Amino acid sequence: MQSAPHIVVVDDHGDIRDLVGKYLAQQGYRISVAESGTALRRILERGAPDPIVLDVMMPGEDGLSVCRQLRSTMQLPIIFLTAMADDTDRIIGLELGADDYLTKPFNPRELLARIRAVLRRVNSLPPNREAIKAKTVQFDHWQLDVGRRELIGGDGVGIALSTAEFRLLKAFLEHPGLVLSRDQLLDLTAGRSADCFDRSIDNQVSRLRKKIELDPKNPAIIKTHWGGGYSFSAEIASA
Amino acid sequence: MQSAPHIVVVDDHGDIRDLVGKYLAQQGYRISVAESGTALRRILERGAPDPIVLDVMMPGEDGLSVCRQLRSTMQLPIIFLTAMADDTDRIIGLELGADDYLTKPFNPRELLARIRAVLRRVNSLPPNREAIKAKTVQFDHWQLDVGRRELIGGDGVGIALSTAEFRLLKAFLEHPGLVLSRDQLLDLTAGRSADCFDRSIDNQVSRLRKKIELDPKNPAIIKTHWGGGYSFSAEIASA
DNA sequence: GCCGTTTGTCGCAGAGTTGTGCCTGACCAA
DNA sequence: TTGGTCAGGCACAACTCTGCGACAAACGGC
């Protein structure tokens, strides 16, 4: 959680700039807005922002050419806004190196979700599939059957895990001991659903704890790091 | 600490100039006041100040145009004062290159906080992530596990660090030996909360010392530089 | 189409952390 | 030595973060 990310919104419509800017500022981001590619370049001179939200359709220089030009000089995450729901344009945008796109009219919440996803990806951990090549993994008094997505207790009794629980547990097993932020966990659990409220991770952790911890109130396997995230602190042995 | 920063307050209201000027002078800053853009330019001829506090609404030439003109000729931190609580205007200010803004009526303390934040940003140290690419760092009789956010003592016993403690220690490890001012430390520890009273750093240092120093009363690792800040003076080896 | 399961969201209460006030003691300059 | 400023440290308060129960929406099987 470094200092708040800096987002630049580029759109020729004042009302969209207002709406988006206001909403994102409210969410704690540092916002700059620009009405054209030229104005954007002026902002960029004063330091690189984290992601850029860029309208495709603008009079004069359009978003695609701005993107093309930016990409040639610097590595910046770009999220496109486009009025055209036509897939062709989406694909062109992504081909140019956009990290994501959104078609108007859009829900501000969804934009927020995309932005967070992009930011997550930028700070993402390298994957570590090695740890889990094995068919079963042992930790604490459990044995995880990766294929069956099932936990087997010391007494041989199996407990079924839901998809999300299994993904979360796998993310932990692939990065044992590390303190993982909620954003990283969202990323690791293949945060397919563009959900933005990372409190959902809290809930998943809570549910998982209820299944695997002897005493869920005093968790011994998944530890909480106040202000930091969670870590998996049990010994792991793959078989 | 170098010589006190020089702040120019530009507002057409005499009472605000007095109030703000008096308060900031009391805090140890060198203050100039101006009632208009013309007066500001006269002050600027005599040397560039550090930040400018600029009212948006002024008769004649307003703050926005003053800002636009300043930005075209020199690189100066600008903090806007605006009576309009409307977010649109805030964003317009940022678009023009303001570094921060404040809506009237404002708390002088908050203005102070913003000024300090801007000054911190201007004097900020370049980040030095290289030093800590390694997974663990050794110093004194400790070994810091960066991923686990844990200190391991010579006896192998781990000590958990809180988020703020970990950030502070990391800041020190990334700039070993350097005397870091409280402002720089606030900046390095991602001083998210724009709190102005740097005594909080003292407290963090105190808490950290209690955890890592053999004798917290006679600190050997984190040294105090009277009137200057703190420095990390242990040998560091990354593994 | 209905129903059970899963999963995200909300809201509140509790826990832990972190900032602030205040006092004491250390350091520096006359 | 004396006065002033700055740092250390304690304790409290405020704050933020987290845990979790409850609810609702989404999903999938039948």
Automatic annotation (TrEMBL), chains A, B:
Residue span, Response regulatory domain: 6-119
UniProt record, GO biological process: regulation of DNA-templated transcription
Statement: the UniProt record of this protein carries the keyword Methyltransferase: no
Domain OmpR/PhoB-type as annotated: residue spans: 134-234
Locations listed in the record: Cytoplasm
DNA-binding region of this protein: 134-234
Residues bearing PTM 4-aspartylphosphate: 55
Keywords: Activator, Cytoplasm, DNA-binding, Phosphoprotein, Transcription, Transcription regulation, Two-component regulatory system
Gene Ontology cellular-component annotations: cytosol; protein-DNA complex
Gene3D superfamilies reported in the protein's UniProt record: 3.40.50.2300, 6.10.250.690, Winged helix-like DNA-binding domain superfamily/Winged helix DNA-binding domain (1.10.10.10)
InterPro entries, sorted: CheY-like_superfamily, OmpR/PhoB-type_DNA-bd, Sig_transdc_resp-reg_C-effctor, Sig_transdc_resp-reg_receiver, WalR-like, WH-like_DNA-bd_sf
Molecular function via GO: phosphorelay response regulator activity; transcription cis-regulatory region binding
Record carries keyword Magnesium: no
One of the Pfam families matching this protein, by short name: Response_reg
Protein name, entry field: Regulatory protein VirG
Native source species: Phyllobacterium phragmitis
